[in-house]
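Case study.
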Amino acid sequence: MPHTSSPVSPTAVDVMATLTDFCRVYQQDFLTAAQRLDLTYSQAKLVCLLAEPRAMRELAEALSCDASNITLLIDRLEQRGLVERHTDQADRRVKKVVATAEGTALAQQVRDEMHGVRAALETLSPSRRRSLQSILEQLHGHMTTSLD
Amino acid sequence: MPHTSSPVSPTAVDVMATLTDFCRVYQQDFLTAAQRLDLTYSQAKLVCLLAEPRAMRELAEALSCDASNITLLIDRLEQRGLVERHTDQADRRVKKVVATAEGTALAQQVRDEMHGVRAALETLSPSRRRSLQSILEQLHGHMTTSLD
DNA sequence: TATTGTTATACTCTATAACTATA
DNA sequence: TATAGTTATAGAGTATAACAATA
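After joint prediction, the assembly is written out as follows.
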């Protein structure tokens, strides 16, 4: 049951186990960063998603949760002055959620607080970094297009 | 504000953005797989962690939540016959959680149900797969040792 | 005394269903 | 009639604090 690197190429299953371990550590780093900034996990995810304005419905999709939950989550972020609701004039049913300056700054702080991931990435040589970037883009592209 | 691949090597910040996107998709695939098997997110994580017996305390650490929460989570898994508690004879305060045959099989099913990640990994050439494996091991190793 | 696991409690997250306002 | 967002509610996850059993 090979789990680590071997002279021959690892199978997709081997890589998946490694990827699973890595994503667990990544997620933990994200959670810790969020908590240091007084954000729950979902709040931090929302703030980081709001690089540009998004409808409530889109945010529910991105968090893969029911749309009804977004109301309260955004309520709390709005009370903290991190986001604002703007009715879409093209379709007055839609509310676009927009990050305020504070919200945008906090999203950046979340990323900055992910010391573990950041430091680990700094240990990569430029060529390995380029390689990782390229492979992740291939994987991500394949996974998102296959969902359409 | 470069986000995608470019002729020069991407910075750690560039790669981090890509990694964030990828981990979000990965996590969603895991959640969907868990829900198809009637497991909550935390339950699925626990089941997948129990390749070998672990103390309640260790599980809390792995899920980075308070130890008190593990009690109810394990209660539910135990009621479904997926895990068992065994008092550690070396230290009778400790309870080791052990996956049953059904629990082990279900953990494997969770991994099998992650079609998106699996299919994406299948698109990698052997050399890129080997490269990804090696890079992830470097990153994971760096992040876990820096936490000690 | 310190540690493991449990219980009780309160807050947050999440899904479901019923409602409103717009389309 | 269909859709975007809201409200109400119930079930699950989580942290805090206090407790029993064991070390």
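Observations recorded in class. Residues 40, 55-57, 67-68, 70-71, 91-95 of chain B lie near DNA strand C (CB under 10 Å from a C1'). Chain B touches chain A through 58 residues (CB under 8 Å). We will return to this complex in the next lecture.
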